[in-house]
Amino acid sequence: MTERAFKLTMDLRTAQKRNRRFRKINIAANAIGGDQPGAKKRIMTFEPLYLKTARKGQLLPKINEARRILSGCILCPRNCRVDRKSGELGECRTGEEATVSSFNAHFGEEPPLVGVSGSGTIFFTHCSLKCSFCQNFDISQQGAGDEFSTAQLATTMLILQNAGCHNINLVTPTHVIPQILSALYMAIDGGLSIPLVYNSSGYDNVQSLRLLDGVVDIYMPDFKFWDPAVAELTCSAPEYPEAARQALKEMHRQVGDLQMNAEGLAQRGLIIRHLVLPGGMAGTREIMSFIVAELSDNSYVNLMDQYRPCGLAGQIPGLAQSLSRKQFEKAMAEARAAGIRQFA
User: In whole angstroms, how far apart are CA 131 and each of 71, 144, 161, 225, 231?
Assistant: First the structure.
């Protein structure tokens, strides 16, 4: 066990006690003066979906079903069917425990997630999509990180909440849904009460996403490519575009358009990311048209301009150079022409 993992284990009881105390204080504060004539009663207007689901006794069955899937894993569209419980590894190279590369209050995410105190990001190691140009190649494909037990992952969530983060932002979570659900169950007992963000590549199975119905408050998928040939060239996943279309439809069905509070902080809904690629390789116009026609013309979209050749991008025709300003401006014009009105 690494020094960091040991410290997380030691912090678990402290974090749980502190969050239970905060929960009691908040309950008391909301009840103050409720029975006194003329007194104003404070009412909580937001509650994470996972708290409602846990209270109804519906979270544990989801955990059990997710854990069952690990025995013949079909969490992502690769459908490897390996027995991760017995140590077999599929495309994601992850066994029964999740691996985490880092966690922190992150200020580089979308403004509705960052606020003033940051988004509580947990970066999971490995990825089932494996984009050859990934900017985090050492994490997604070279395995940088430490294995976390359920207790350590739960502690991490509570530590981020205690630090004042506005949400728990699960980065590249698709292949570790069972581990996340198990940790969430423990973190709820410790007082977790901020929105849960599912930050994925869009390479998700609808069956897996349905396990998260009533659990995830904010979905933030990428929609990377429209053309199966580009997805094959960059990720060896020609099925990606169709998988992403179905995944985004399911995500939107569950949480709808993005909703923010009076402070501009995201509380529930869908945020869609799209990394513009050189030469129009991502299919921006088609993706934006799909979003407006099949999801909502009120969708919140982050059109990203930071592409630069990383990982193995130099080996792919058309991706060996950075995105130009002119190319990004063209993509932005295409998004507006398609009917996108809300941009990050």
Answer: 26, 16, 31, 11, 9
Q: What is the dihedral of CA 311, 315, 317, 319, to 10 degrees?
A: 20
At residue 158, the 3 state secondary structure works out as helix
| Tokens encoding 6 | 């040991």
Degrees to nearest 5, angle at CA 241 with 235 and 242 = 130
- Indicate the burial class of 224 (C-beta count within 10 angstroms; 0-12, 13-18, 19 or more): buried
pLDDT tens digits, 216-233: 999 999 999 999 999 999
- Residues 6+ away with beta carbon under 8 Å from 284: 274, 276, 303, 331, 334, 335
Token pair, residue 242, equals 């169709």
Answer whether 0.70 is exceeded by the pTM: yes
DSSP 217: S
CATH no., domain 50-343 = 3.20.20.70
Instruction: Provide the phi-psi class of 40: left if phi over 0, else alpha when psi is between -120 and 50, else beta.
Output: beta
Helices (H), the chain: 3-31, 49-55, 59-69, 111-114, 137-140, 150-162, 177-189, 206-210, 228-235, 240-255, 284-290, 325-338
**pLDDT reported for residue 73:** 98
- Of 225, 343, 245, give the one whose Cα is nearest residue 290: 245
For the four alpha carbons of 258, 108, 222 and 141, in that order, the dihedral sign comes to: negative
Calculate the alpha carbon distances from 115 to 120, 260, 341 in Å. Answer: 11, 11, 21
Give the contacts of 183 (CB within 8 A, at least 6 positions apart). Answer: 150, 151, 153, 154, 156, 157
- Crossing angle of helices 59-69 and 177-189, in 10° steps, is 150
d(CA 227, CA 287): 10
